[in-house]
Amino acid sequence: MEKRVLVLNLDHSPVAVVSPQKAIVLLLLEKANCLSVYELLQIRTVSRSFDYPAVIRLNAYKNIPYRGVLLNRNNLFRRDGGECQYCGSRKQLTIDHVVPRSKGGKTNWMNLITACHRCNVNKGDKTPEQAGLTLRMEPFKPSLAYFLVDYAERQAEEWLPFLDSKVVQ
Ligand SMILES: [Zn+2]
């Protein structure tokens, strides 16, 4: 799989993840500097080859509005580590409203968790307390950096020195 390139703002906050082709264009136009490369990898074009950038930094500050992480099934499962937040099971995962919708529970990061089918059925239309269930972790809204660290640990260790996982932009 093609490795992606982390783009940092002038102040070194992460702003985007782009293809290597896009990164090369930014470098050739001198709109960015290369801070780190994937060693042993090269980008080849017909006429020449380039070091494969891993992290680049923009040469001018870009004002970018907050980019949250999209609330969807996959991202929710990722935040919760693919585990039921009541019993830790990794099987038959579903999405549970901690405070049920019928009791005014919202559909947002703070009220949605990963739950296995069994716990979800047991809980039914009750709150965790009423159902005798305890959450393993307080639900939270993940930052872009949080998911970037997750990706970097699996695919792009070269990014890690440039990511401060606790910074919420
Ligand atoms: Zn469960």
UniProtKB/TrEMBL annotation:
<dbReference type="Pfam" id="PF01844">
    <property type="entry name" value="HNH"/>
</dbReference>
<keyword id="KW-0378">Hydrolase</keyword>
<dbReference type="InterPro" id="IPR052892">
    <property type="entry name" value="NA-targeting_endonuclease"/>
</dbReference>
<keyword id="KW-0255">Endonuclease</keyword>
<dbReference type="GO" id="GO:0004519">
    <property type="term" value="F:endonuclease activity"/>
</dbReference>
<keyword id="KW-0540">Nuclease</keyword>
<dbReference type="InterPro" id="IPR002711">
    <property type="entry name" value="HNH"/>
</dbReference>
<feature type="domain" description="HNH nuclease">
    <location>
        <begin position="71"/>
        <end position="121"/>
    </location>
</feature>
<protein>
    <submittedName>
        <fullName>HNH endonuclease</fullName>
    </submittedName>
</protein>
<dbReference type="InterPro" id="IPR003615">
    <property type="entry name" value="HNH_nuc"/>
</dbReference>
